[in-house]
Amino acid sequence: MNWISEVVRPKIKTLFKRETPDNLWIKCPDTGQVVFHKDVEANQWVIPGSNHHMRLSATQRLALMFDDGQWTDIALPEVTADPLKFRDQKRYVDRLKEYRAKTGQVDAFKVGSGAVEGVPMTVAVQDFGFMGGSLGMAAGEAFIKGAETALENRTPYVLFAGSGGARMQEGILSLMQMPRTTVAIRRLRDAKLPYLVVLTNPTTGGVTASYAMLGDVHLAEPGALIGFAGARVIEQTIREKLPDGFQRSEYLKDHGMVDMVVHRHDLKSTIARLSRLFTKAPVAEELAA
Q1: Is the pTM value of this prediction over 0.85?
Q2: Where are the alpha helices (DSSP H) in 66-159?
Q3: Nearest CA among 221, 219, 207, 223 for reference residue 272
Q4: Bridge partners of 219?
Q5: What are the φ and ψ backbone dihedral angles of 27, each rounded to 5 degrees?
Q6: CB atoms within 10 A of CB 164
Q7: Which residues are CB-neighbours of 277 under 8 A, at least 6 positions away?
Q8: DSSP E strands: which ranges in 127-279?
């Protein structure tokens, strides 16, 4: 009996065992619905049943935005890695190494140049996967470099914001990126170039208090968390219960903080249309005629 249970049965199980990848299924954070990974990917990382918009990496976002998924990466300035020699549970430089290995990026920003439905455009993406998309010196320099590229090429500048706020490991140097990025936006405005912001989940803290809310038009993905302080902090401060859906994109649209809530499937066409409107560029039909 032992021979059958300990030798024969394991061999039979091994014979018919099938290897299944760990990411074959995705569980919806809203409803708990389990969906086939490839179905979600084919739907631009939106859960088909619940319409939950999953977070995207910077590379995924740029691939969805640009025509044929083709763009030119903009080289970003290098900055001092650890200006304050910061340490908490681990050294800041070690955290940076960890996230750089994990994401394949130098920091939280990626900037690309290319065409969106035929419209030349400069697009910057803040990647929440890199230290919560936090704003430090590297991110500030990247945002400014994107604005300078838009000025040089005379294109609209589009930002996909997604961040937990300023990077605490860089202290006051992080906070100084708020006025610096504001000056870059002012230069775009003086040059009469459109600056469009797409607020993704989440966009909070010092990023919301600066360049994320200074666009000519503010778009937001459905269900995105957008705010400065957290809901619990606000409730403790004002000693009142906040309304349902507070700080979500739909609530902010109803109260005038966001211009449009746009499904991910429609973002590309909406941004291209707005860019043509601001730059007075001809539409495809006019070019064909």
Answers
A1: yes
A2: 92-103, 137-153
A3: 219
A4: 198, 260
A5: -100, 125
A6: 18
A7: none
A8: 157-163, 195-203, 217-220, 260-261
CA distance 178 to 15: 60
User: Is residue 101 within 8 Å of 135, Cβ to Cβ?
Assistant: no
What's the CA gap between 92 and 196, in Å, rounded?
32
Closest CA to 137 of 89, 82, 91: 82
* Strand ranges in the chain using DSSP code E only, listed in sequence order: 25-27, 34-36, 72-73, 109-116, 119-126, 157-163, 195-203, 217-220, 260-261
Q: Quickly state the pLDDT bin for 225 (edges 50, 70, 90).
A: very high
Q: Model confidence over 123-156: pLDDT tens digits?
A: 999 999 999 999 999 999 999 999 999 999 999 9
Q: Which amino acid is at 183?
A: V
Closest by CA to 220, choosing from 242, 245, 186, 196, is: 196
Structural domains of the chain ordered from first start: 17-54 (no CATH), 55-288 (3.90.226.10)
DSSP designation for 222: T
Instruction: Find the length of the chain.
Output: 289
CB 43 within 8 A of CB 106: no
Specify the 3-state DSSP secondary structure of 3.
helix
